[in-house]
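To illustrate the input format used throughout this study, we show a single complete record. The first block contains the structure-token representation of the backbone; no residue identities are included at this stage. The design step must infer an amino acid for every position from geometry alone.
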């Protein structure tokens, strides 16, 4: 039986994800030189972003699996997504239009920034919208497949199409050869492309199919989490170096491809594995008295998790406006950084209670109560 009960620990993970992303965008001058090495462990995969993707894949898929036999399931799902995402997003876009070129506006309005921005130079107030484009593309493609296909067929699409497709995308980018003139675009394609980010989204979706199994016993959770963390380690630069595989790997790639570009491709696999391990641990031990459960269920983290969409949406343009982005050449003072953080939280809280929450309440009209279906053979 598929479940649709609320898992409070996931609110805490959502909070940690958005806080990690905000932290990544803060300047080193504010965080201290010690943050540089720590950032290298999180980038370019960006653990915070992959946590969001795994959570989205898991939560969206479990909703679709439960509601798939309800009347108008696809229409109702897309309506709820529209009410949850679009009003806040397009309101922010409307506010920022005077600061943007028309190409940026079109890309943001059509949720294609993850690809369109490859051909644009310079930073935008909506540069962070690439991840929202990835998720929206996932919703539009994945939701009808889950609703219309059998559970086995949709599950197999992840294992036999999405995951191999992501691997082939990374391999093609590396084998292509000299990145010279195209290095930036290819690197951005790897990091921001839906075909590679499906690794995290698809992993979360796969967890939804096997949620009952994961929640049925501690040994299964421990085995899954251990295996995922081991996989992430084996794909790390330190592990490859320890086993003497790093040099042969670098020597095998075409001339012009830098070692860091190879590591980018590997981290697109290893970081989602860590993110999936975190989410699987929370799902498999939900409600239990564990140290991580105590932290993830804390009121402050769950509160931040509830406003995480607004925090993500608003933090980048606010940080850029007050000049506290990590890439800003002018090191800001602590007061400016504090102002950017406080403004982000104030705007996100106001957005949640004035716009998002009322629309989510209205969206509940479009969720028909149905019995959870039994998984198809």
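Output of the design step:
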């Amino acid at each position: 039986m598929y479940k649709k009960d609320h898992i409070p620990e996931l609110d805490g993970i959502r909070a940690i994800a958005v806080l990690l992303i905000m932290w990544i965008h803060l300047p080193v001058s504010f965080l201290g030189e010690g943050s540089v090495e720590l950032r290298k462990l999180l980038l370019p995969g960006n653990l915070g972003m992959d946590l969001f993707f795994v959570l989205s894949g898991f939560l969206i898929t479990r909703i679709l699996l439960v509601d798939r036999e309800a009347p108008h399931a696809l229409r109702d799902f897309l309506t709820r997504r529209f009410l949850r995402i679009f009003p806040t997003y397009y309101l922010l876009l409307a506010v920022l239009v005077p600061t943007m070129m028309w190409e940026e506006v079109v890309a943001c309005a059509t949720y294609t920034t993850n690809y369109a921005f490859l051909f644009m130079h310079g930073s935008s107030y909506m540069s962070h919208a690439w991840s929202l484009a990835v998720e929206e593309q996932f919703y539009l493609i994945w939701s009808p497949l889950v609703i219309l296909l059998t559970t086995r067929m949709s599950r197999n699409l992840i294992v036999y199409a999405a995951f191999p497709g992501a691997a082939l995308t990374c391999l093609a980018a590396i084998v292509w050869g000299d990145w010279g003139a195209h290095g930036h675009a290819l690197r951005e394609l790897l990091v921001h492309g839906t075909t590679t980010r499906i690794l995290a989204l698809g992993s979360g979706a796969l967890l939804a199919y096997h949620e009952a199994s994961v929640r049925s016993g501690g040994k299964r959770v421990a085995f899954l989490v251990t295996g995922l963390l081991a996989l992430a380690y084996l794909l790390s630069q330190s592990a490859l170096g320890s086993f003497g595989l790093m040099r042969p790997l670098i020597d095998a790639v075409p001339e012009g491809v830098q070692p860091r570009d190879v590591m980018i491709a590997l981290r697109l696999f290893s970081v989602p594995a860590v993110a999936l391990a975190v989410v699987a641990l929370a799902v498999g031990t939900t409600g239990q008295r564990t140290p991580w459960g105590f932290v993830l269920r804390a009121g402050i983290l769950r509160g931040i998790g509830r406003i995480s969409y607004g925090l993500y949406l608003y933090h980048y343009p606010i940080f850029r406006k007050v000049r506290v982005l990590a890439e800003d050449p002018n090191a800001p003072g602590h007061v400016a950084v504090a102002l950017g953080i406080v403004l982000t939280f104030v705007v996100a809280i106001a957005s949640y209670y004035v716009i998002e929450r009322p629309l989510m309440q209205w969206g509940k009209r479009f969720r028909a109560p149905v019995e959870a279906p039994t998984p198809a053979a």
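Structural context for interpreting the output: Residues 8-366 form one domain. The chain has 20 helices and no strands.
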